[in-house]
Amino acid sequence: MAFSVEVHHLIQQYQSGQIAFQGLMLTHANLAGVHLPWVNLSDAVLQSANLDDAFLPGASLVRSRLQKTSLRRANLLGADLIRANLSRADLSWALCSTANFSGANLSEATLQGTSLAGANLIAANLRGANLRETNLRGANLMGANLVDTDLSETYLEGAYLCYTVMPDGRCWSQDGDTGERQAVSWDNIAAYTRLANHLAAKDIDTD
């Protein structure tokens, strides 16, 4: 695979033992298929880059700028993406289990078939994201924004929802004022749907 001079230099430095590349600027770069486990790319600018099939388990991408970046089938197992900007990024079929996306911007991102099992999505912005066939089993969605997302065929068993803004704009708070996290089962998803439909029919404001 042919890489640009900048990417080739990055790979050479990594292979020589360097893992810290904070603030790196590689906008539109072709990084498809790179193997950079545990690399530190915090605050990196990787907008519109190609990271398809990249192997990045345990990587630090804190506050990184990944808008419109393609991460299809990438391995981000256990990666740290706190407050990363992934707006309109494509993470289709990526492996992101146990990754930390707390406070991340995933608005309008494509997450079809993505594994986010056990991921930390506290206060993440997923507004308008494609979540079809996404695996969110055991994920923490406390305070996450799911407005305008499509949760059909999404796996949510064991996910935690508390003050999570659901696709229709209503806030999930099953425990009332307790603020305790609630594990999702198909039964309470169905209960939420019935309640939402009932309130919509009566035009009741729940705010």
TrEMBL record:
User: Would you tell me the protein name for this molecule?
Assistant: Pentapeptide repeat containing protein
Annotated signal sequence range? none
For this protein, the record's Pfam families field holds: Pentapeptide
SUPFAM superfamilies the UniProt entry points to: Pentapeptide repeat-like (SSF141571)
Q: Report the transmembrane regions from the record.
A: none
Record InterPro entries? 5peptide_repeat (IPR001646), Pentapeptide-BTB/POZ_domain (IPR051082)
Q: Which organism is it from?
A: Halomicronema hongdechloris C2206
